Amino acid sequence: MLSNEMEFKNLIKLAKNIIVITGAGVSAESGIPTFRGAPKLRWRNYKPESLANMPAFVKSSSLVWEFYHYRREICLKASPNNAHLALSSFELRCLKENKQCTLITQNVDGLHKRAGSKNIIEIHGSLFETKCMKCHSIEDNFTSPICDGLANRGSPEEDSKLSDIPVEQLPHCDKCHGLLRPNVVWFGESLPEQALEDSIKLLNKCDLCLVVGTSAVVEPVASFPHQVIARGVPVVEFNIEKTPITNNSRYFFQGPSGSILPSLLS
Ligand code: BV8
Ligand code: ZN
């Protein structure tokens, strides 16, 4: 076994409070397109960032709901891959060894939960929760399609018909009949207060931070590993390519997370 792997395994043995930060790369091998890596999420001729924001939703809730409906359906059909499964068994192992292990994920695809991870902070929300624009109630929602108006809609082809679903045929709240939105954090929106507060507490307490499959460019999560490094605590990165945190990481294990995580975390 390479010395880096041996030393990494030793770090795990000594650690008591471990944080794992994941991004879209963890779900790439489940067939979920990433935001910036390859295969990149391309939907019609839009960049995700141009749809994942409130002004776009106000301008055309039909178009934005078609985009989210498309992604919900892809994620519902996808299954957790070996990276998700390795992380959920790692959490169990930490529990047995009396270690704290918390998963802070930027992913909204729900695959960590489906893989059995329990101690999760879904810091960018979830495709499978809705939030009411009127009464703000947040509900789980795995219904496919989420409403009749979106049935067979959301195709990613550029020439698909103009998004003209009447707003009354978009998802509405059972309680107050307000228009629903996906309960994800859009660009320009602040992160859920509790999730951010809990994450910062954990960042200040952890003695080891693993970073898996993130381009580490989206703030404020992109700064999380730097905050850990600033405390002199080791950050270990798993990615198929280098990122802005690679140079300051204690170890960088290069490769698809689905193939390198299982052996490194076992
Ligand atoms: C905020 C939910 C302010 C939605 C997401 C300029 C203009 C406008 C905004 C900004 C700006 N500069 C900074 C900002 C702020 C902005 C930001 O950081 N923008 C970036 C793009 C520059 N941030 C925000 O807007 C945040 N809010 O700042 O609010 C504020 C502050 C105070 C008070 C009020 C307001 C909100 C950010 C959250 C946005 N929501 N998602 C949705 O999904 O639809 S972010 C989106 O990007 C996803 O959540 C995704 O997870 C996240 C991060 O991307 P990654 O997960 O890293 O994925 P990516 O594709 O980038 O990378 C994949 C990686 O995996 C690559 O490294 C690749 O190499 C690797 N990989 C690929 N395959 C594999 C692999 N690794 C291992 N194995 C493999 N097989
Ligand atoms: Zn409501």
Give the biggest beta sheet: 6 strands, parallel
CATH architecture level-2 label of the largest domain: 3-Layer(aba) Sandwich
- Bound compounds, please? ligand BV8, zinc ion
| CATH C-level class of the largest domain | Alpha Beta
**Tally of domains:** 2
Structure explained in plain terms:
The structure is a single chain. With 266 residues, the chain is an alpha/beta fold. The chain folds into two domains: 1-31 and 80-124 and 191-266, 3-Layer(aba) Sandwich (Rossmann fold); 33-77 and 126-184, SIR2/SIRT2 'Small Domain', CATH 3.30.1600.10. It has ten helices and nine strands. It has helices spanning 3-14, 25-28, 48-51, 54-59, 61-77, 82-96, 111-114, 193-205, 224-230, 257-265; strands at 17-22, 100-105, 120-122, 125-132, 138-140, 180-184, 208-212, 235-239, 251-254. The strands form two sheets. A six-stranded parallel sheet has the order 3-2-1-7-8-9, sandwiched between helices. Helix 9 (224-230) links the parallel strand 7 and strand 8. Helix 6 runs parallel beside helix 10. The two termini are 13 Å apart. It binds ligand BV8 and zinc ion.
